[in-house]
Amino acid sequence: MRPSGRSLNQMRDVVIETGVTKHAEGSCLIRMGDTHVLCTASIEEKPPSFLRNTGLGWVTAEYGMLPRATNTRNRREAAAGKQSGRTQEIQRLIGRALRAGVDRSALGERQITVDCDVLQADGGTRCASITGGWVALRLAVNKLLKTGTIVSDPIIDHVAAVSCGIYGGQPVLDLDYAEDSTAGTDGNFILTGSRRLIEVQMSAEGATFSRGEMIELLDLAEAGSEALVAAQKAALA
């Protein structure tokens, strides 16, 4: 039934390759099917101005798509002179999600910026960015611990994200573009490794959905996030 031939509860193949850039304190390339995102984490030894003298650190994110990440060329936002509303919304989402897995007092007064650059898009780019962004963040924090810059681990838990939706009248896990573009209901679920919810974004695109269908999608998302956390652990092993 699915264009890819996957079963309703089947994820795309997930591969996370770490250490893919020379200079960033943490980096990975995450591939979720044909969606590929480069994630890098950069440490600055000072917090944003609004956090000075608070003892708290900050994790933030930036997100962008390369011009030929999709089947037609998109103009660079830098050339247009401003970010789109979609880009701003996604990078705020990534930052919120990653901060939920961090003890900011243990991080100390410094900022880690996670950059997520979409090399190729086939649906679920924000979810791949969050999942890969956490790996890059984890690697950057490992360096702080190794050098003794911080003494306690500020990472509280894994953070992973997956899309679910209702396609062809059936709840499905991890939508690719062919499904996402025609799904009746589309949702993004962000969870911790202990299955605590961080954020849920759901909307009816072509048809409303019931409470029961929402629970079915949440069940799929929990299974999907478990698989993604396992992929994160394997990449960091």
From TrEMBL:
Keyword tRNA processing appears in the UniProt entry: yes
Keyword RNA-binding belongs to the record: yes
Pfam (any one): RNase_PH_C
Key words of the record: Nucleotidyltransferase, RNA-binding, rRNA processing, Transferase, tRNA processing, tRNA-binding
EC main group: transferase
MF term (GO), any: 3'-5'-RNA exonuclease activity
GO biological process: rRNA 3'-end processing; rRNA catabolic process; tRNA processing
Catalyzed reactions per annotation: tRNA(n+1) + phosphate = tRNA(n) + a ribonucleoside 5'-diphosphate
Residue sites binding phosphate per the record: R86, G124, T125, R126
Exoribonuclease phosphorolytic domain: residues covered: 10-140, 159-223
EC code(s) of this entry: 2.7.7.56
Protein family (similarity comment): Belongs to the RNase PH family.
Subunit structure, as described in the record: Homohexameric ring arranged as a trimer of dimers.
Reported function: Phosphorolytic 3'-5' exoribonuclease that plays an important role in tRNA 3'-end maturation. Removes nucleotide residues following the 3'-CCA terminus of tRNAs; can also add nucleotides to the ends of RNA molecules by using nucleoside diphosphates as substrates, but this may not be physiologically important. Probably plays a role in initiation of 16S rRNA degradation (leading to ribosome degradation) during starvation.
Protein name stated in the entry: Ribonuclease PH
UniProt source species: Falsirhodobacter algicola
Source taxonomy: Bacteria, Pseudomonadati, Pseudomonadota, Alphaproteobacteria, Rhodobacterales
